[in-house]
Amino acid sequence: MTLTRTLLGIESSCDDTAAAVVRLKDGKGRVLSSIVASQTELHAAFGGVVPEIAARAHTEKLDTSIQSALDAAQLGFGDLDAIAVTAGPGLIGGVVAGVMCAKGLSAATGLPLIGVNHLAGHALTPRLTDGLAFPYLMLLVSGGHCQFLIAHSATRFERLGGTIDDAPGEAFDKTAKLLGLPQPGGPAVEDAATRGDPERFRFPRPLLDRAGCDMSFSGLKTALLRARDARISDCGGLTVTDRDDLCAGFQRAVRDVLIEKSRRALQQYLEMSPAAPTLAVAGGVAANTAIRTGLETLCDSLGVAFTAPPLRLCTDNAAMIAWAGIELLTAQAVDPATLTARPRWPLDDRAPVLIGSGKKGAKA
Amino acid sequence: MSVPTILAFDTSAAHCAAALLRAGTIVASAREEMAKGQAERLMPLLEEILAAGGVAWRDLDALAVGIGPGNFTGIRISVACARGLALGLGKPAIGVSTLEAQAFGRIGDTLSLVDARRDQAYAQRFHDGSAQSAPVVGDRASFANGIESCIAPLADTLARIAATRLGTAQPRPAPLYIRAADAAPPRDPAPVILEE
């Protein structure tokens, strides 16, 4: 196959405004440019992402980010084959801004427009970075999501389980907030944990006693709050050692849950007898060394290959959206119905609902 | 470009409105009332307006877009779309506020008002259509004798105002929110860190 395709990708579903150009050539994907305009500073004072602030920033950063991505790739619209945009799931204000900007671009340039599921973007990234063959097991673990998916094809994902409440990245952020550490919480908590004693505070491992791959992290946050408050009422505050030990105990609990649930997900996946069994992990939490090392050790013991895309393609970015667009074009699975911005959009609509089973449907 | 071709649109309130200005005349105009669904309706409506005026996207000299004040999401739908269109066409998008549009063509002093809910209004003073103050939000009762509509349809007026600005450098259109984002810093303070 010598088919060449060049796509612009646009992503605005959380607190990063991103645009990228990706090219498929000789069967391989290459990132020609990837711009990520972070809003971290805008949200810092609020201890979390504020949807209205995010939507405001996206609206005024999308076009300039797209221009930057084209400039960095040294391409114009005439060099593109299509535009891919995140159409959900995510914070709806930002998703709407991205979809409307993309609709405007598409009308102006005549380029076809492809709506991409943000989760599919993450789940297909290992094919861009490592050329992974289907089926592979995907652990998507970030500030907004946590789920195990078997990627059967560019359009078929089977969810084995996931969090029934908070995502681990969110738990790291909340832990940092409770302990007076800076945001984003992942790197700050990990850094403190390297100096801490993980045995001093024993935190619960929710749902480990239950079969299956579902997880829960909100109780862990409450346990951390109780342990913190007990120290504060005894001593009037926390010492740095207390803080480091709390971080280490918390991180150990998250790691233990993720590793054990990964073991179960891998067992289910291996029943399919895949030719080249592989676990791929994506999302910001994949950058945590303790968790990553634990997953690598687990994979080694089971004879499964382990891969994690580089961090810049693991956290939110638009290259994964452009790549997912290329995959959908290749699979001839472009659906105009995906062009409506959707706050909720589960990748596997046959699996039981994990979160948000109200009248608006499953969240993810 | 003495007689520019301009496509104008607005979704800053419970409507989807568009107009096409060509050779000094509004050749097509539409306004559909809707509380939601503007994100899905806007592009098809713009295509219809262009078709009615016999104009292709590449024939446009500029876009005019309503920047509010009004419904935050509605404003963003149009502004994001206008910015995408402008980038793709290589033509300017010119943002015009509803407050200014309502004062356009009025002689003398005008207090322009837009409903801000919660018994409040967005307000700005104009003289012969020129702004005399910055836009503000305040209690509706504090504003007397204000006007709350345009002389011509809103989208038509946006196009005509944009035509007067074409040819001079214009900033990219940005929403006119006036109200700050509803967000409060966390209530629980960080713990005291003790010396060891």
UniProtKB/TrEMBL annotation, chain A:
Annotated Gene Ontology cellular component terms: cytoplasm
Span of domain Gcp-like: 31-323
Q: Where is it predominantly found? A: cytoplasm
> Where, in this chain's numbering, is Fe cation bound?
H118, H122, D316
Q: Does the keyword Cytoplasm apply?
A: yes
Q: Which Pfam families match?
A: TsaD (PF00814)
Protein name, per record: tRNA N6-adenosine threonylcarbamoyltransferase
Gene (UniProt): tsaD
From TrEMBL, chain B:
Q: Which residues form a coiled coil?
A: none
Biological process annotations from GO:
tRNA threonylcarbamoyladenosine modification
Name used for this protein in its record:
tRNA threonylcarbamoyladenosine biosynthesis protein TsaB
Q: Which GO terms describe its cellular component?
A: cytosol
Its domain of life? Bacteria
Q: Which InterPro entries match?
A: ATPase_NBD, Gcp-like_dom, T6A_TsaB
Any matching Pfam family: TsaD
Domain Gcp-like: start-end pairs: 33-139
Name the PANTHER family for this protein: TRNA N6-ADENOSINE THREONYLCARBAMOYLTRANSFERASE, TRNA THREONYLCARBAMOYLADENOSINE BIOSYNTHESIS PROTEIN TSAB
